[in-house]
Each structure stands twice: as C-alpha cells, then as structure tokens.
Amino acid sequence: MDDSYPLSPRLQAILEALPLAELAFAPVPVRARHDGWTPVRQTAFIHRLALCGSVATAARAIGMTRKSAYNLRERAGAESLAVAWDRAQAMGRSCALDRAIERSVAGEVRPVFYRGRKCGEHVRHNDGLTIAVLNLMERQRPGTCWPPVERDPWDY
Predict the structure, then answer these.
(1) Is the pLDDT of residue 148 over 80?
(2) Which pLDDT value is given to residue 156?
(3) Taking a C-beta distance cutoff of 8 angstroms, is the pair 19, 84 a contact?
(4) CA distance 62 to 101
(5) What are the start-end ranges of the E strands in the chain?
(6) Distance of CA 102 to the CA centre of its chain
(7) Domain spans of the chain, in order of start
(8) Is residue 28 a contact partner of residue 37, using CB atoms and an 8 Å limit?
(9) Is the peptide bond before 142 cis (omega within 30 degrees of 0)?
C-alpha cells in the first residue's frame, strides 16, 4: 500500500492477512485533481473498507465523504470498483463480527492505575455487546426468518 494513507501496524498486519488479490480492481477513470479520487486513494478506500466494513468510516479515513464514494461507484467505468467494493464490504463486516465475538467472549482488558502507576488489569465483559452479537448471528443463520416468530414462553 502507498504511504499516502498509512495504517497503524496492527491494522497493516490485519490487512496483509486478508486475501487482497480478491480486492484487485481497475481504478475508475476520473479527472486528475489533487483532492479527488486518484487511483491510490481508490485503493486505500477499498483496503479500509475491507478492514471496517463501513463506507463512511473508510471514506473519512482517506479524506473523502461517503457521498463522494457512492458517486464514484455510480460513474461510468466503475464496474470493477463496484465488485471490489462489495467484496471488501463483506470482508469488513465479517471481520467486525469476528472482533465483536472475540470481545464478547474474552472481554476487554483494561489497566488499573493507583497514584499514577499501573498496578494491574481487569477484564471488562460487555453484556450488551454479547446480546447484539447473538442477535446478529441469529439473523445471519441460514434457514431462519427475521423478524423471529413469536414463541410460546412455556414451550421449551
């Protein structure tokens, strides 16, 4: 990836673990502008979309807006970008779900400080996150209907 839009080392490692060959695309031909959708900026957007799954977050990370990203996708000659976009968004959402599952099961380690010095750690579990993850997994399970069918509370 170009150093114009650097990632943190942790995100860079996650990105390198993704199948980037599936995200290859032909950049959309646009008029040359220093603040426009250059091929480097388009690639950076797709990579960030693969990391987070959110169009607004990915666009903001490279200095663009969500609206301009969707406008780019609708341009003539953007078919290759649209395919890469859909794949990247699916990867990003899957990764986000995986991270949420990990955090809901293992918890989040938080440092404990006393008089300005770290004296320990404690694990914080988020029940709301666990419930949200379970609801999302239920909706994504094949063969289930959404919204859920009302069940008799006494029927176990």
Answers:
(1) no
(2) 43
(3) no
(4) 28
(5) 108-114, 117-124
(6) 15
(7) 9-103
(8) yes
(9) no
